[in-house]
Amino acid sequence: MSFFDIFKKGFFPERHEKELEAVKIENNFEKLVYIARNSSFSDVRIEAIKKISDEDVLVDIAYNDSNREVRKAAIKKISDEDVLVDIASNDSNSEVRKEAIKKISRVHVLDSIYRKDSNRNVRETAKNRLEELNWE
Questions:
Q1: How many CA atoms lie within 13 A of 63 on its CB side?
Q2: 3-state SS, residue 91
Q3: Closest CA to 94 of 125, 70, 63
Q4: pLDDT band per the 50, 70, 90 thresholds, residue 16
Q5: pTM of the model
């Protein structure tokens, strides 16, 4: 059985536990990326993301994963402020936008989000971030 067989849908009855075990001991970059993009279980994908530092992979996951918690885990590791601004301004999920806002340091962007976002909680997160940056 190959490593990738563990991650085939329906291969093991206890697939979730097997995947979690595999990701915890895995250090091979390509395998971790495969897990982060292909596991059926969001918590397994998040565990893989914790071990990935490649910004391009993290950005791809932040933009494309179907699960907001997985996208948030990727955002926590992204340093490209242009990407963070784009996500904070355009992601359809308010929780994902809030996670990106927490890492933005561009005052004019935060001010715009604070004034214009349709979600009250997102606006509040932008306001709090502005206060952290001592902006008035």
A1: 11
A2: coil
A3: 125
A4: confident
A5: 0.88
Report the SS3 class of residue 102: coil
Q: What is the mean pLDDT of residues 73-100?
A: 98
Rounded distance between C-alpha atoms, residue 51 and residue 69, angstroms: 16
Give φ, ψ of 93 to 5 degrees: -100, 125
Query: Of 99, 103, 98, 102, nearest to 121 (Cα)?
Result: 98
One-letter amino acid of 131: E
- 8 pLDDT above the threshold of 60: no
User: CA 53: distance to chain centroid?
Assistant: 12
How far apart, in whole angstroms, are the C-alpha atoms of residue 39 and residue 6? Answer: 10
Count Cβ atoms below 10 Å from residue 109 Cβ, excluding itself: 18
The one-letter code for the residue type at 27 is N
Q: Among residues 38, 41, 37, 83, which one has the least CA distance to residue 59?
A: 83
